[in-house]
Amino acid sequence: MDYRVTISGVSDIGQVRKRNEDSMSLTPALGIAVIADGMGGHPGGDVASRIAATTVAASLERHVTSVEDAVSSDPHRSAAHLDRAMVESVHSAHAAVRAEAEERSELSGMGTTLTALAIDAHTGIFAVGHVGDSRAYRLRGGKLTALTRDDTWVQTQVDAARMTPEQARHHPFGHILTQCLGLEDEPYPHVLTGNVAANDAYLLCTDGLVGMVEDDDIAATLLQRLTEAGGAARGETAARALVERANELGGYDNVTVVIALVE
């Protein structure tokens, strides 16, 4: 079964920050969406996020188009290919950010998170690649499920049962990443593959959304907006509503929201 995928995104500076260090790169025709959040307090966060988002998107485009015919009828090959493509694309982006920092000394130390989605509309296979604390979710049958796990110090404490999720959410060290793109250590991208279903909604977002809006609120807003809106504008309407909700609750950070709808 072939699926139709539509992708919409909105990025906003928020209510406090003086510049937007988030970036996104969308290729709806190929089912590709990438978001990145430059590291706050580091030089060139906006540069790092832009390089990462555009590099990963371009790399995924090449991988997808180069083997589209060969794997389109084989879901197993499609999943394996998307997994490899995602890992290679993330490492390419890391190298690109590092190279730019080496050429421009004023950008030394710049880094960024990254979360990417690729959906094969022919086989119904999706892949999510992830480094940092920008997130991916799936809304299916009214239930919102996290597809990523934050690369943060507080998440390691939760995993070790030394901290509750509620404590982690409000912890002063909640912003400390355990890995990102651009710094000296090579990142280890987490990749998840799976099958899409008709009426799925995939959400990519930076921490400017999840830092302000609880998951239950995100799910309710998505359900309401996707139900109320019609046609091709549904995704953008829902994305804008989530950005507005983050700003209503304070908008302390840049916020980027991308929504991919499967039909």
Secondary-structure blueprint:
Elements: E1 5-12, E2 22-27, E3 32-37, H1 45-71, H2 75-103, E4 114-120, E5 125-131, E6 135-140, E7 143-146, H3 153-159, H4 165-169, E8 190-195, E9 201-205, H5 207-210, H6 215-228, H7 234-248, E10 255-262
Antiparallel strand pairs: 1-10, 2-3, 3-4, 4-5, 5-8, 6-7, 6-9, 9-10
Helix pairs in contact: 1-2, 6-7
What is this structure, in a nutshell?
Helices cover 38% and strands 24% of the residues.
Structure overview:
The chain has 263 residues and is an alpha+beta fold. It has one domain: PPM-type phosphatase domain (Phosphatase 2c, domain 1, 4-Layer Sandwich), CATH 3.60.40.10. Helix content is 38%, strand content 24%. It contains seven helices and ten strands. Strands 1-10-9-6-7 form a five-stranded antiparallel beta sheet. Helix 1 packs antiparallel against helix 2 and helix 6 packs antiparallel against helix 7. It is globular, with a radius of gyration of 17 Å. The model has no long low-confidence stretch (mean pLDDT 91).
Features:
Phosphatase 2c, domain 1; alpha+beta; globular; five-stranded antiparallel sheet; 263 residues
What is the CATH superfamily?
PPM-type phosphatase domain
Low-confidence parts:
none
Strand-and-helix sequence, N→C? Answer: EEEHHEEEEHHEEHHHE
Overall geometry = globular
Assign the CATH architecture: 4-Layer Sandwich
Strand order of the largest sheet: 1-10-9-6-7
Total strand count, please?
10
